[in-house]
Amino acid sequence: MKFGLRLRGGLLATLIMFGAPVIAPVGAVFVSSSALAQTVQSISVEGNRRVEVETIRSYFKPGPGGRLDQGAIDDGLKALIETGLFQDVRINRGGGGQIVVSVVENPVIGRIAFEGNKKIKDEQLTTEVQSKARGTFSRAMVQSDTLRIAEIYRRSGRYDVRVTPEVIEQPNNRVDLIFTIEEGAKTGVKSIEFIGNVAFSSYRLRDVIKTRESNLLSFLASGDIYDPDRVEADRDLIRRFYLKNGFADVQVVAALTEYDPEKKGFNVTFKIEEGSQYRVGAIDFRSSIPNFDPSSMRAYSRVNVGSLYNVESVEKSVEEMQIEASRRGYAFAVVRPGGDRNFEAHTVSVVFNIDEGPRIYIERINLRGNTRTRDYVIRREFDISEGDAYNRALVDRAERRLKNLDYFKSVKITTEPGSSSDRVILIVDMEEKSTGDFSISGGYSTTDGALAEVSISERNLLGRGLFAKASVTYGQYARGYSLSFVEPYLLDYRVALGLDLYQRQQLSNSYISYGTKTLGFSPRLGFSLREDLALQLRYSIYQQEITLPNYLANCNNVAGSAAFNPSPAYAAANGISLVSTNGLGCYSDGEASLPVRKELANGKTLTSALGYTLTYNTLDNNKNPTDGLLIDFRQDFAGVGGDVSYMKSVIDAKYYTPLVSDIVGLVRLQSGMLNKMGSDLRMLDHFQMGSNLVRGFAPNGIGPRDLNPFGTQDALGGTKYWGASLELQMPFWFLPKEVGLKGAVYADAGGLYDYQGPTSWAFNGVSGTNEVNAPGCIPSSINPSSAGTCTGLVYDDSKVVRSSVGVGLIWQSPFGPLRFDYAVPLSKGKYDRTQEFRFGGGTTF
């Protein structure tokens, strides 16, 4: 409830009330020039209620001899008005050399309220306005607050906002201040155009910038909201993109924005002058530092003769050289790149000049804006500290690392002069952002069925730079939970310690007859060897067991005999019916493969393994790459305790390259090998391949397979595999870029072979009760093919090259990445299983 009289009015009344500048009133009395010679005997004050008399008198400073001239009176009047404490100030001349200062004090604000605001909370608006409860009411300040509130809404994309300040008068010279807000609808970007671009299409340039056009799914993102700061940043992104691709003379002349009242949105136009594309003609190294060999810096150059002139490569070269010079004892060495353009040949001769820089030291590093993040979390990203030589390359590296932490909306490092000419102060300005995430994810794939996940994570736990995540997954065929924790700086070294605890359950489905339960723990250490090279060391210990429905495991224990599973040949030779009449009808209702049943009989198995991963990454964008190379090489060594031992090696390489008309080419090569070390290999240790190697095949659809015609014919896996894929990804030019759809055509080839798991059912070495020596056992006609030998497991292990061709639909949707594939196998094994259509994807909401 509001008390008193509310002063209402339209826009004109608001401008009249708050728009007029506060000036000295017309009724003020100015002392005549004849008074300059008079001595002021006293200054009296009238009308004050809260401000002390002596405080008001202190604004009038008599000159020498106690004289108060006209200039001093004018200065005092101006100073009183600027305090913002008074609505009106008048100065009159009294008798006997007396000055009378009459004031009307501004009211005191009782409370501040906001009405009509739904998208921005009261708490945020309260912190933004300068007017405060129990503070002095000022018309000029209220006008400024009105504009500030409108600006906040515009930053969130609501340009139709209207803010009207209203005043409620209260007793005792107090007022209530009410801001009435009409928020309006979001003002989006309706179109983005590029003028002057020839080398790169507008479709490609839209990938470079952050601003997006509005579409039907824009409510799930904010990139389409018009933000002038973002548009200005996009200018620099476009410029950097051209400089990276050899256009040394590029200029983004302007970013023009125009509001379209019919579309109720903005049209953004970037005007570009590309210039010519240059290649590197020559590279030279020069030094003015005595006894410094400039040619020794050649190993740290990332610029190559004949390659496109790339400003980013030049900048990284400068950084590496300057850091290396510092390591060699040249703390003040400065590397300055130079370029000599040959306009006819379109080449740039790059020269790296290494000179002795000014001897400047870092006096202090001041941090500003980190209200939550601890100081040491920020300082440890610096390779320099107070007292060290100032090195611009190391400062730039620290700024880049702080941005990559993803704790801050913005990070900027500037310098200020120190206490002397050879001292500098580093100022680190930051704006923090929320680092916690709570998500509910859902997805569906032809492999795992429907799947849902609830997770909560924090990237900057307790402001200490720690990462923690807990997630629970429940799906049609997969269930489990995981807990993860990462300390990025172990013992203050740039080494990341990760701890993972997980439990997973895979249920039987149409692709596998058995289920698995896995409970594991894995600590890991991560090292960044270079910006494009990372190493991870890990230890894994997990317990695993197989589960089977009863009808697939009803012959593992036969009363009165050793536990074994008779083959069809053995049953026929001994007059045993395969129909369940005497308890030995193992195949009347289907039976899981021998390796599966052996794993079931063995019970829980413990695996203890050491491993490492070496990753080389030069992708231009990890989520939607168009250029670069990604190589993962992994090795795991099991047998550090536990029940199994093996060595598993895997390599996966992806190379992206832009072709023509925004078409991106992808070449993928992958291979793996499993080597026996000591104990026999389990079936579960083998590689299982299908659509993850050659599209067009079912999960676990290729490779060695049990051929028991009465059983489930499970995939057995292999110890060796290889795969190769060629793919062309192309946009749909007739659709808006913001839709995020593109198509793909591809050809895959690969193979999986060399099963080395169990092939017979032997118990305690008793040869008379295993299938190898069972009477009537027939030779394997498939593999192994040695005449006269018998095996309890008849399986296919032919080294057939599987291949397919297909088309795909890729959607970078607000719901997460989605992909649809339709592939037709061209060559396959006799017993392979195909699946021409495949779908996978998920979302977070």
Verbal overview:
- With 845 residues, the protein is mainly β.
- A 16-stranded antiparallel beta barrel has the order 17-18-19-20-21-22-23-24-25-26-27-29-30-32-33-34. Strands 1-6-7-5 form a four-stranded mixed beta sheet, covered by helices on one side.
- A hairpin with a 3-residue loop joins β17 (436-445) and β18.
- The longest helix has 17 residues, at 139-155.
- The radius of gyration is 38 Å and the shape is elongated.
- Residues 1-39, 556-565, 576-585 and 763-791 have low confidence and may be disordered.
In short:
With 845 residues, this protein is mainly β. It is built from 12 helices and 34 strands. The longest helix is centred in the first third of the chain and has 17 residues.
Descriptive tags:
single chain, 845 residues, mainly beta, 16-stranded antiparallel beta barrel, four-stranded mixed sheet, disordered N terminus
* Strand order in space, largest sheet: 17-18-19-20-21-22-23-24-25-26-27-29-30-32-33-34
User: Which class best fits the helix and strand makeup?
Assistant: mainly beta
Residue ranges: pLDDT <50 for 5 or more in a row? 1-39, 556-565, 576-585, 763-791
User: Could you describe the largest sheet, including whether it forms a barrel?
Assistant: 16 strands, antiparallel, barrel
Shape: elongated
Radius of gyration: 38 Å
Q: Kindly report how far apart the N and C termini lie.
A: 39 Å
How many H/I helical runs?
A: 12
Task: Please report which band the strand proportion falls in: under 5%, 5-15%, 15-25%, 25-35%, 35-45% or over 45%.
Answer: 35-45%
Mean pLDDT: 81
DSSP helix fraction: 10-25%
SS elements, strand count: 34
